[in-house]
Write a structure and sequence with these properties.
- It is elongated and about 65 Å long.
- It is 77% helix and 0% strand.
- It is built from 14 helices and no strands.
- Helix 1 packs antiparallel against helix 2, helix 6 packs parallel to helix 8 and helix 12 (194-206) runs antiparallel to helix 13.
- By secondary structure, it is mostly helical.
- The longest helix is centred in the first third of the chain and has 17 residues, at 65-81.
């Protein structure tokens, strides 16, 4: 019924643009197939970048990442043509969608454009640097990713994933003091996250702390039985002579 009500609301020719945007975005989140229909009609009616942003949101909520990235990119282009400050946010959304699609090169291009605008601030800027770090890691640019993560953990300090990725990269680059500091912050923020516990065990293992590694990896199995992370933790535990009594179910 919600989707039908929203369709009725936006169908009238006198509906203000802000109301149409609100209605479209609500549908994109709560009923994304209907939201896609509303957004496409709005595009036909000349909705511009706002309509294309709504389309991207509807597609993302259907996990159609490639289509969503294309819609957000088109929205960003439209916003640039109008010198709208919103263009940077839209490029950031496109980059995030390309990452979800598994296309880090395209993500990097979009995220570079977002950051180059120099209009993003605070948490949004921090999360965009975090996404660019992810793209750079996928491309083997560890030094570039390190620079992005240094910004991300400062501007998005409440995001445990920023600290987790920073700790993981520090471990891979051989900076164990940094790895320990950053994983401690990730644990403080999200100690029950299996990904955090898995990396905590990895860092403990390379630091020669077998007991700490065992405890963390067993915790992964407890937190997320039957998952890929639990399987990875169980495989890591196999290096120890003493078998664990924890059973993955």
């Amino acid at each position: 019924m919600l989707a039908l009500m929203l369709i009725a609301q936006v169908a009238g020719p006198t509906l203000p643009a802000t109301d149409r945007s609100d209605a479209c975005q609500r549908a994109a989140v709560n009923a994304p197939v209907q939201g896609e229909t509303l957004a496409n009609q709005w595009i036909v009616d000349g909705g511009g970048y706002e309509a294309r942003e709504c389309l991207g949101l509807a597609l993302a909520n259907q996990r159609r990442w490639r289509d969503a990235a294309s819609a957000f990119s088109a929205a960003a282009g439209d916003a640039e043509d109008k010198d709208e400050v919103r263009a940077a946010n839209l490029w950031a959304l496109a980059g995030n969608a390309w990452l979800a699609e598994g296309a880090p090169d395209r993500a990097l291009t979009a995220l570079d454009k977002a950051i180059a605008k120099e209009t993003l601030e605070g948490l949004t800027l921090g999360e965009t640097h975090l996404d660019r770090a992810r793209a750079r890691v996928s491309g083997g640019d560890e030094a570039g990713a390190r620079a992005d993560l240094d910004i991300a953990v400062r501007l998005a300090a409440s995001d445990p994933f920023a600290w987790l990725l920073s700790a993981t990269l520090a471990r891979r680059m051989g900076d164990l003091p940094r790895a320990h500091r950053d994983i401690a912050e990730a644990v403080r923020l999200a100690g029950d996250d299996p990904a955090v516990q898995l990396e905590l065990g990895n860092i403990a293992a390379v630091s020669g702390n077998a007991d700490g590694a065992r405890t963390a990896w067993e915790r992964v199995i407890t937190l997320a039985p039957g998952t890929a992370r639990a399987a990875t933790a169980r495989q890591a535990l196999a290096q120890f002579d003493t078998p664990t009594d924890t059973q993955d179910q």
